[in-house]
Amino acid sequence: MPEPDHIWSFREGDGHPGFRALATWSLALLLLVTSCVSSMHEYRGHTVFNPLYLPYLESKSRDHWQMPEEILDALAVSAGDHVADIGAGGGYFTERFSRRVGPDGRVYATDVQEVMVSKLRKRAARHGLANVTVIHAGFDDPGLPPGSCDLIFLSSVYKEIEGRVDYATRMRAALKPGGRVAILEYRPDCTAPGPPRTRRLEESVVVAEMTAGGFALEHRHDFLPREYFLVFTVVSPDPRSTLP
What we know:
Blueprint: H1 17-34, E1 40-43, E2 46-49, H2 54-57, H3 62-66, H4 68-74, E3 82-86, H5 92-101, E4 106-111, H6 114-126, E5 132-136, E6 149-155, H7 164-174, E7 175-186, H8 203-212, E8 215-221, E9 227-234
Parallel strand pairs: 3-4, 3-6, 4-5, 6-7
Antiparallel strand pairs: 1-2, 7-9, 8-9
């Protein structure tokens, strides 16, 4: 999770000086509030991302360390694709996916928190993202239509899922033949600002759980400065047959 010095950057000439002063005071107030609040909070019995930190995720500086366009390039996201953005939050990646897949594509933006679902709907309406479908997902199920996705994408979300092996099999049910799952998580040894160290997962844990859920590691990208970036494909036999 980006720390306070990674929120917004105001360039010289950004509007009236009065606006810049107001923005500065607003930012200072936000920092004062969030500095005393954890980046994770309890929501309906689950530990998930705290919406108070959502402005950090919309920081311009995030583009530099998150490298979203490079991520979409690496995943070869293109016109007509159907993509699920799991735990989409405020829609940072959702909007980028929407632009890439175009009018013939579809983006399923999911989140478990009502406040995030509301923000996603407002963002889609404000920016004319007609190809975005917002889904209020469950904690144990992404809520995606069966066989609907070419790609399922999780950015700093996988660690928040409970019962991850079962969840993986449910993601599998939402994939088209040849579909993939991409998972980005902070490296435990990364010293840059990010999620609490106690919440981070070793890469080997993610691989083992996804393997148990019926996936195989297809590719490991190493160009991100803070996160590991794993891409999985479906293998046989289908482990869903063992679910109750």
